[in-house]
Write a structure and sequence with these properties.
Length: 307
Amino acid sequence: MPLRLIFMGTPDFSVPTLLELVAHGHEIVAVYTRAPKPGGRRGLQMQPTPIEEAARKLGVPVLTPKTLKTPEALEEFRAFDADAAVVVAYGMILPQAILDAPRLGCYNLHASLLPRWRGAAPINRAIMAGDAESGVMVMKMDVGLDTGDVAMAERLPITDNMTAADLHDRLARLGADLMVRAMAALDRGGLQLKKQREDGVTYAAKIDKAEARIDWSKPAHAVLRHIHGLSPFPGAWAELENARVKILRCALAEGSGAPGAVLDDQLTIACGEGAIRILELQREGKGRMQAADFLRGTPVKPPMRLT
C-alpha cells in the first residue's frame, strides 16, 4: 500500500527523491519548501526553488511557510493526515510538535556517513577533508542536528577526480533509491533503527567564501581536494597577473617548485609538495572553460606565478 507522505525539501539535491517516491506510487499530499527568492539576470524575478518547480509539474500542493513553530503551522501540517514526512535538504528546523505529527514519524535523507559530517555542507567537507568515501543515510528525525537514529545507508568512494558537483549528483541519485527502499520497509513495518555512534562526530559547517582562496603552500593532494570540494560553488580561486581566476577541476601532476609557481605552458602549478595541473577554470566575469581554451587566449608560462 502506498504511504501518504509530506515531502520537505529545497535544492536540486532533493528533486530525485521526490520524483522516485511518486514513481513508486506513494501519495505526496503536500510539498514544503523555502519561499521564492529574487533571481534572474537582474535579480528582479522571484525564483521558485527546484522542489517547488518539480511539485508544480506534478500537481502537488506547495507550501512555503516562514516558520513551523506557530500553532497555525502545526494545525495546517496535521491536517494533511500524513503517514510520514520525508525531508531532504529542507533548510528549516522542524520543532518537536511537527516531528510528532505524522503517524510514522519524519525521515531525513542526509548526504554523509553519520555521525561524520553532521550539518550544512557534508558533501563539500568530505572532499575537502580528503575522505576516502561518502554516502547517504536515512534517519528518523529528532530535534538535534542530524542526531536521529539511522535506518539505512549506502556508501560511495570519493575519487580524486570528483568535484562537489560530481559527488552531489551521484549521492542525489543514490539517496533517492535509498529513501524509496526505506519507505517500502516503513510501510511493511520492517524499518529497523539504530542509534548513531557517539565517537567520530564531526560538523560540516556552512562554506564561507573566505575559505575559497587557494593556499599553494599545502601539499598537492590537499590543494586538489580543496579545489574540488569548492567546485563549482563558491569556487576556489587564485590571482594570476592581478586577475582572479577560479579553478574548477585539476589533477595531480609531476613537478616541484616555489608554491604557486607556473612550471610549464600547460598550467602545471607547484604546491608545497608536488604539483597540480589545472584542467578547467573560470576568469572573473566569464564562463567556465577548459584549460586548453583558456591558454589559447591567455598564454601562461614560467616564471609566472599564481598567488
